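#structure-requests
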Amino acid sequence: MHCENRVVAINGEEELLFIIEYGVYPELIRALQTTTYRIKVEHQMRRAISFLKKKTASVVVAEFYHEPAFRDRVSNLESMLAHIQRKLPDTQVVVLYRPEDTPHLQQLMGRFPLNHTLPTPVQPAQLLAVIGALPQ
C-alpha cells in the first residue's frame, strides 16, 4: 500500500529519519546507509519535528530517554510522536531504549503506537532486520 502523503526522494528512495540526541551510533548510521532509504540524522528533537513538518519520513528511528525533570512528559519523544500520530500515521517508528527505562517506555507505548522497540546496545544487524521487516 502506497501512501499519497509520503515524500519520496528524487532518486526514488524513501526517507528514514534517525534521531540521536545522546548516544553515538556511527556503526548504526553506516548500516542504515546500506539500505534503500535516504538517511537524515538529527541531533535535536526540535529539528527532527521541524523536518517532519516539511517532509515525510517513511521510518523514524529514535532514542528514548526518560528524564525525571520532565514535568508533563515521560520522555523526549512525546511531541514528535503526537505529530506523527496526527499528521503522518503511515510513518513507522522504531525506538532504541535503555533496558532500565522499560517501565517508562511502557507508559509511552500506552499513549502512542510504536512499530518496534530495541534495547541498547543495538547491533547493526538487529536494526537492519527490524527495518527490513517493517510494512512498506
